[in-house]
Amino acid sequence: MAPTVEISIPTTSLSNTSPPYTIYHITLRLPLRSFTVPKRYSDFSTFHSTLISQTDAAPPVSLPSKTWFSKTVSNERLREDRRRGLEQYLRAINESEDGRWRTSPAWRAFLNLPTAVASTGNGSTNTSNRLHAAITDPASTNAPITDPTLWLDYYRDMKNHLHEARLQLSRRDQETTPQKQHESSAHAKGSLVRAGAMIATLEEGLKNLGRGDKGSESQASSSLGGGEIRRRKDLLINARKEKDGLEGLLHAMATKSRLDHTVASIQEKEALMNAGNTGDGSGRRSTARAGRVLGKETERTRELDNEGVLQLQRQMMKSQDDNLDELRKVILRQKELGTQINEELEVQNELLRMADEEADILKSKIDIGRKRIGKIS
């Protein structure tokens, strides 16, 4: 029996393309999760034609008709009416007593629904068996993926392996004993290896789905459009990046563990050597305290060996030299500015001196003029 699905189209939006088009956000609620599938009206039209060709029967409710003199992008009322019509169209198929539309590959591929494990019919059973074999042992599935729904189910389980690897790495970071850490690392590595094999299978399956081989009826119904192919390629690119990141994190954790083990061994050897070289002056060795001599450690040096500490010291010295060079440049710049300011002040003082002289000359001329005016009067 197929899982119960609640379908609705609560919202619409406009695309960022030029020219824009209306996107209908289909919300699906399954017993264990919910997700949203964005579709445009042309996707509904293609799905409607494929559904009729696969089932030889029209759905219980007809698809809302296309309008020629008005567009949903500019007409909000028309957009709302079409949203309601498309929602009624999907709900009629989902709630119909006749389940032939719901069991068709077009219905599951359009809504990205998982394959029903207990579905009736040889096709669904064969798909479920292939999915189970792919999950349990990816190397055993030599047959390529030609079903879009099987591809999505396979992708979901690959993502589950990546999620499991992330959980194991987080658990390993919290473990305190080397045995537990090793077990978590082994589980994480196994999940990453399985996920890598599944990504390769998904890439090969996507090539098969993108070819659209019309030689057989099953291949013709399994081909995907260019937009869906690009979307699934983006999913695989992101999944491979996530896998590579987790592998890098696992490698870093393993390197850190080896460094910790090396540092502990060196410190224990140093402690034994210090214990053996201590004496009381009479040639007899006194009993020294056994154990590790940690010394003065910091957060940056605690996880490094001697070579790592030396490298860290060189980096710090180089950083200090760079800072001194920058400080020297700043001081030289300040010196140049001070020299220029001093030269500017000397020029200003010279101008002020000349202005004072000119003022004195002008004052003497004014006094002479006043005396001449007094004589005339």
Automatic annotation (TrEMBL):
Q: Which domain of life is it from?
A: Eukaryota
Q: Where in the cell is it found?
A: Vacuole
Task: Look up the record and give one Gene Ontology term from the biological process aspect.
Answer: vacuolar transport
PX domain boundaries: 2-117
Q: Where is this region: Disordered?
A: 171-192, 208-227, 274-301
What region holds the T-SNARE coiled-coil homology domain? 314-376
Quote the InterPro entries the UniProt record gives. Answer: PX_dom (IPR001683), PX_dom_sf (IPR036871), T_SNARE_dom (IPR000727)
Main location class? other
Q: Which SUPFAM superfamilies match?
A: PX domain, SNARE fusion complex
What is a single Pfam family found in this protein's UniProt entry?
PX
State the Gene Ontology terms under molecular function.
Answer: phosphatidylinositol binding
This protein's GO CC annotations: fungal-type vacuole membrane
The record's keywords, sorted A to Z, are:
Coiled coil, Vacuole
Q: Which residues cross the membrane?
A: none
Compositional bias annotation for Basic and acidic residues? 171-186
Q: Which PANTHER family match?
A: SORTING NEXIN (PTHR22775), SORTING NEXIN-13 (PTHR22775:SF3)
* Function description: Essential for proper morphogenesis of the vacuole. May exist as structural reinforcement on the surface of the vacuolar membrane and be required for maintenance against rupture by osmotic pressure.
Q: What is this protein called?
A: Uncharacterized protein
Origin species: Penicillium bovifimosum
